[in-house]
Design goal:
By secondary structure, this protein is of the alpha+beta class. About 45% of the residues lie in helices and about 15% in strands. Among the domains are: about 40 residues; about 55 residues; about 90 residues, Endonuclease, Chain A (3-Layer(aba) Sandwich), CATH 3.40.960. β7, α10 and β8 form a beta-alpha-beta unit. It is elongated, with a radius of gyration of 44 Å.
């Protein structure tokens, strides 16, 4: 169906929109849009701008008169600057009340907790944290009845398999088979040069003594860099308490790769009269 373009132009000039044009000419909206695009015709309904209703008001901060177009939100201030300045004034006036509210909210949040394993007080990073460290968490989980049964069954099955294969050893009786560390090697060489009688990695309860002088019950411990960690310091303290309770004298030397290490060993030998 052919459409007269002059007729289309006349209807557009009357101010009809696309829907009204399709109804009058009995043509689909898409064909009218296509014809308008080809002939570069524009509907006057789109070009008509809505008249903005303007309202006069007074700024709540500077009391200056200003105008704005009516929309959903009513304007109270003439500019953003006035709005920010008024908010600052209100905050300054109510600063004490705001601080009290914040402090009350912070008091309600309890970040302190007691470790389920070592019973020490610690600061919680998360409200689900029940232990102060990973070691405490793992030991607490393993101490639960279900886990203890599971672990014991697992080790018993391993022991049975090892017994079938001809291995009759149970656990570690000593750590002598392990290679000594670099600080321990140097200490060992120096003690051997002095021809002192000692036992390396002597088992005492659940602990191992680095260099044990059995006759005088003196335990010499060589502490490397890893002994500066908080967890290992706590383990060392527990070890020292256990050895002292069992009649041992504990002497610790911090490792440093210099001649001062030999001076410390000499002072240790002189102090306890080991020569």
């Amino acid at each position: 169906m052919k459409i007269d373009i002059e007729k289309l132009e006349s209807l557009i000039s009357e101010g009809l929109n696309i829907n009204e044009l399709s109804g009058k000419l009995n043509v689909s909206i898409s064909t009218i849009k296509r014809l308008m695009y080809k002939n570069k015709l524009k509907s006057l309904s789109k070009e008509k701008k809505k008249e903005k209703k303007i309202k006069i008001s007074f700024c709540k901060f500077c009391q200056m008169e200003f105008t704005y177009s009516i929309c959903n939100r009513i304007r109270k201030f003439c500019s953003k600057k006035c709005s920010l300045d008024s908010n600052r004034k209100i905050i300054e006036k109510n600063r004490i009340k705001i601080n009290e509210k914040i402090s009350k909210k912070l008091r309600k949040i309890d970040n302190k907790g007691i470790c389920l394993w070592c019973k020490k007080e610690f600061v919680k990073k998360n409200r689900n944290h029940n232990c102060c460290s990973r070691s405490c968490s793992s030991s607490e989980i393993n101490s639960r009845p279900y886990n203890r049964e599971r672990i014991s069954n697992m080790f018993s099955n391993l022991a049975k398999e090892r017994y079938k294969m001809g291995d009759t050893t149970i656990g570690w009786k000593s750590r002598k088979k392990l290679d000594p560390s670099y600080p321990e090697k140097i200490t060992m060489d120096y003690l051997d040069s002095k021809k002192l009688e000692y036992e390396y990695e002597l088992k005492c309860g659940r602990y191992f003594i680095d260099f044990a002088f059995k006759e005088k019950k003196i335990a010499l411990e060589i502490d490397g860099r890893r002994h500066n960690d908080l967890e290992i310091i706590e383990k060392d303290n527990r070890k020292d308490i256990f050895l002292i309770e069992n009649g041992w004298i504990v002497f610790r030397i911090k490792w440093k790769n210099d001649n001062k290490h030999y001076d410390k060993l000499d002072s240790f030998i002189v102090q306890f009269g080991l020569e």
